[in-house]
Amino acid sequence: MEYRTERDLLGEMKVPRDVYYGIHTVRAAGNFPVSGMRVHPVLIRAMAQVKQAAALANMDSGLLDHKIGEAIASAAAEVAGGGLADQFIVDSFQGGAGTSTNMNVNEVIANRAIEITGGKKGDYHLVHPLKHVNLSQSTNDVYPTALRVAAIGMVLELSESLAGLQAALQEKEAEFAGILKLGRTEMQDAVPVTLGQEFSAYAEAIARDRWRLYKVEERLRQVNLGGTAAGTGLNADLNYIFRVIEELRAITGYGLARSENTVDLTQNADVFVEVSGLLKAAAVSLAKIAGDLRLLSSGPLGGLAEISLPEVQPGSSIMPGKVNPVIPEMVIQISYQVMGNDQTIAMAAAAGQLELNAFLPLIAHNLLQSLGLLKSAANIFTDKCIRGIMADEARCRYWLEESHGFITALTPHLGYETAAEMVKKAKLEKKRLREIVIDSGLLTEGELEAIFTPGELTGPGVAGAKHLKGKVI
C-alpha cells in the first residue's frame, strides 16, 4: 500500500495515499477502536450539510475564495447525498465532544474538494480541512447543530411510520367492532368488551405518540451554529453568523432558526433528553401492544387464541409445526433497547460541564439509534403483523360464555347479592352462568339475549335496560 505523509501539532503520520480522510482521522481511529460501530450516517450527512452552508456563507461574507468555496460546497453536497460513506471510519464512541467526527468530515470534504480543483489528496495548500472547510466554525457549534438536523429528519420519518401503524390498528378496530369477547383486568376475567375496542385503545396510544413526536420537532429547530467554541461567536463574522442559518435552512428544507442564546445551546443538551423521553413513551406503547398480541394469540390450542398473527417463519428446531410470535417479540426487544438508551442519554446530558457537554457523541449515538430502531420496528410491526391479524370470533365468544365476566351486566337486573350467589352456584355446579340464571327463573333466555349484544354490553348505561324495564333493581 502506498502512503502520503501528513502533519499535525503532534507530529507526522503516514496516511494511505488513496483515502479521503487524513491524519486527524487516523489518530482518532487508532485512539477509539472501541465498538466497531461507526458514526451514524445520518449525522455524517447532516454535518456535511452544515459544511456546505458554512462554505456558502463564508463566500458570501468575503471570507473564502470562491474557487475554494465552491469546491468545498460541491464536495460537501456529495457527502450529504451519501457519497464517500466508507471514508467515515471513526468509532461512534469517542472523546472530545465530537471533534474526531468533525475532523473526519473536514478532511474528507477537503480532499474531495482538492480533487475537484485538480489537485491530489493531501495537498492542503489548495484546500485545508481547518483553514477552509472549518472556517468560522467550531466542533462545538457544528456538532450540536448537525445532531439537531439529523434528529429532525428522523423524527419526521418516525412520525410517518407511527401514522401507518395507527392507520393499520384503526382498520382492525373497524374490522373487529362487532366481535364480543371477555375483557380482563389484572389477568382475571372482568367485563365484556369488543375486540375492536381493544384495538381502538392501541390506535389511540400510537396516535398520542405520533402527535407528541411531531410537535417536539419544533424544539429541535433552534440551533447554535455561529456560536463557535462557547456560543459567544468568537472568530465568526457577523454577516456569516446570520447568513449561515439561511443557507442551512435552504439546504435542509427545515425551519431552522438561530437561538437567541447560543451559549445555552452550546452547553445544554436537555432538548435531546426531551426527545428521547418521547421515544421512550412510544417504546412503552409498542411494548404494551406487542405483549398483548402475544397473549391474545397464545396457544393456539392451549392458550387464549382469540386472534391469530401472520405466520412469518417456523418457530422451532425441535418442535415440528410450532410457529412463534416473532414480530411482537422483536418489537418488545427494540422497545427495551430504546428505554435503555433513554437512561443513557439522560445521564450523558446531565454530565455536561460549564460551557460544553463532552458526551454529545454518546447522546447522538443513542438518540439516532433509538429513532432508527423505532422507525424500523413500527414499519415491520405494521406490515408483517398488524395488517394480517385475524380474529377467531367463536373463540372470543367461548371464553366469554365460559367465564363469569358478564355477571356485572346482570347486577342491575338481579341485585348484587343475588348475582354473587349465581356466580357461586355456577362454580360449585361447574355450569355456565347463563345456564344457572335461566334455571333459577330469574331471567329468560330471550331476556339474556337482549342483554348479551355488543351494543348493550360494551356501551354506557345499563345493558338491556330498555328491554327489561320492570326487572331493573
The N- to C-terminal Cα distance equals 93 Å
Radius of gyration: 31 Å
Give the CATH topology of the largest domain.
Fumarase C, Chain A, domain 2
- What kind of sheet is the major sheet? 2 strands, antiparallel
Q: Return the CATH class of the largest domain.
A: Mainly Alpha
| Helix content range | 55-70%
Work out the number of β strands.
8
- pLDDT averaged over residues: 94
Total count of domains: 3
In sequence order, what are the helices and strands, one letter per element?
Answer: EEHHHHHHEEHEHEHHEHHEHHHHHH
Dominant shape: elongated
**Oligomerization state:** single chain
Structural class: mainly alpha
CATH superfamily of the largest domain, by name, is Fumarase/aspartase (Central domain)
- CATH architecture assignment of the largest domain: Up-down Bundle
Tell me the strand order in the biggest sheet: 1-2
Q: What is the beta-strand fraction? A: 5-15%
Contiguous runs where pLDDT drops below 50 for at least 5 residues = none
Output the number of helix runs.
18
